[in-house]
Amino acid sequence: MSWYGCLGVYAWSPFCRMDSAMEEEWWRQFDLPSGERDLRPGVYRLIGLDDTVDSTPAVIHRACGDDATGTLYIGASSCLRDRIASWVMTNRPDIFRSAPSKPFAARLAVFFPTNKLGFSWQFTDAPWDRENELLQAYLVEFGELYKIIGGSLVSRFGNNRC
To answer: What proportion of the chain, given as a percentage, has pLDDT over 90?
Structure first.
């Protein structure tokens, strides 16, 4: 299945911009009617945005084509809410004094500062299978995986050529 077909198989959450994530109260999307929090597993994407005004994905130039979805990173988590919270906390030092992990690479921040970053997610009961499906489709479509992950996943999936 193509990257675009694979991406559209399940519904993704609306983009949430990193620089306004706190103001938009992104975590409210995980509140259940019962008052509890939705702690389901799923997959998530870090998305480069074209400008600082709207949430139009940036076109990312890859080895075998242009990715119009702006996908910079794909990951899986046993608890989406907690994983996304760690991203927001790490990349919003203006709000959080201590971060749970290291900020995004300085090189990435040059092209995609927090006002040009977004994220989206989808729930799934098999997050690592879905992540693998997305990564394989991305590799076949564009001939490479994003540099954040490095070569280990490329060699894991073999040498695909366009």
So the answer is: 20
Stronger pLDDT, 138 or 84, i.e. the higher one? 138
Q: List, in order, residues 6 or more apart from 62 with CB less than 8 Å away.
A: 142, 143, 144
Q: Point out which residues pair with 17 in neighbouring strands.
A: 118
Q: Which residue has the tokens 């690479």?
A: 105
Beta strands in the chain (DSSP E): 16-17, 42-48, 60-62, 65-67, 71-77, 117-123
**Per-domain boundaries in the chain:** 3-152
End-to-end CA distance of the chain: 14
Query: What is the C-alpha to C-alpha distance for residues 144 and 24, in angstroms, rounded to an integer?
Result: 33
